[in-house]
Amino acid sequence: MFQEEGAQAPSFLFSGVKGVRKFNDEFAPLREKTNYNPSAYVQGSPAMPLMSRLNRCFVSLTAFLAVSSVAHGQTVIELTDPTQSPNPCIFTTNASGVTADPSTGHLRATGTFGQNCQTAPPPTPLINPGPANWALPGDWTIGASTQVQWAASNADLCVYDGSEIPAGQQGSWPWPTSGVACNSTSSCAAQHDLTLTPAVAGTYKFKLTCTYNGNAQTANVSEISATVAAAPTGCVAPTGWTRVTEGTVRYQSGTGVSVVSPTTKWDHVFGRNGNQGGTLLPWPHRRNIVAGVQFGGRQYVSLEFTPTMTGNFSLAGSPTAFQDWGGGGQGISMTISTLCGDFGTSQTSPAIPPTCFRSGMGGSGSLFYSVGGSAACNLQVGQKYYINMIYAALPTTPQTPTECAAGSGACRMQYQAQCFDTAVPCPDPPSQ
User: For the segment 199-223, what is each residue's pLDDT rounded down to a tens digit?
Assistant: First the structure.
């Protein structure tokens, strides 16, 4: 370790040594016995590794150390750090010269840094944003997605080592338990956007360790742990609100045909055409069907569906049916969630994908969504969801007043199921 008097020693790459006269004079007797010429080695050989890997130090004195542990007298050493400058830094020891520690192989010297010397410590990596400042859901459940980001400046290597995931986590999990996250200053500095959707319950640990130029002494670690719970069973609507599991479904207009039907799945409402018989079609059929469930008071409707194709979709309010709604205020609010009866928002409920909610949709409000597409409300193929509808503002609590003044079963709002840009065309309803 080469140390300036009164200062802490920096780390260097050493490529050459001058002022070796005293080295030759000191070890002339030993040279005669061993035919070893340290002067020729120091001045004519390439740099050889000697100092600790932690300090990234290399010096052309390896052979010299093989024969002695002390070099007496003032010595001038040229230090070259190829990551900083091709011009050597001139370091001049005091009269004590250079001392070698035979147990560690480290060189030690006290002296003065001179021309071309850069004694600033290596930069410390900065991880921001990183796991340590992620806002993970406090009530995270299986299947609920959350968005996170990370980036690291002053770093050329970041690794996932030390991260943990529960046994059985399936699918493409974007945060492995080990391995390289980035391996250059540019790739580490870039913002990395990730979607975390846990498939099993348990503790997840996200750890990122970043270094620069292999200097472990200035490594920066950012980590966080979170517990994911099993998805709730049943519906999670606020206390005092009741799910309509069977009711009157009206089609095509406020005065159109109606049928008493179960009202727990997409098929029950949008998968039929009025009171005509035939097979109930699953989501996303039928295209352009206009249907609505009559309900109100402190009731809600949750329709289960599972996307089976990619494309763009919407539930568009029917202005002609709004006049028969019978309620007051702003009308129905709607969410798409992995949970039945979830009347929060994307900010309050991790089970609601970003922007997959509308509060107070009125007579012509619409909820647009895509499956594997570019809409802000984006769903995944094969994931079970619920379309939740309620006559109340979001997020709904036990104290939230109903927007249906006419009482239970007296209000209705109809929506048109629209299906476009899909891999498989959605059929129009048959003519009545």
Answer: 888 999 999 999 988 777 778 999 9
